[in-house]
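pasting for ref
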Amino acid sequence: MGFVYQFFLQVKQDVLQGRLPCPVNIAAQLGAYAIQAELGDYDPCKNTAGYVSEYRFVPDQKEELEDAIEQIHKTLTCNYN
């Protein structure tokens, strides 16, 4: 598991610093996975509107991307089976 996590962190850093170009739809998906890993399942009591803006995923991050990340995060669930 350590290698996969390190790989994810490197990709996240490369996208954030602009070394790895990333289309907006892919950035939204990756951002949602990062939020899921950081915060767990979406919880409307904890994850109030705008919570994604506390995180940086791409250079020159726009609100539209943050909204897309929130929408995708709402669909993700942790399965611990």
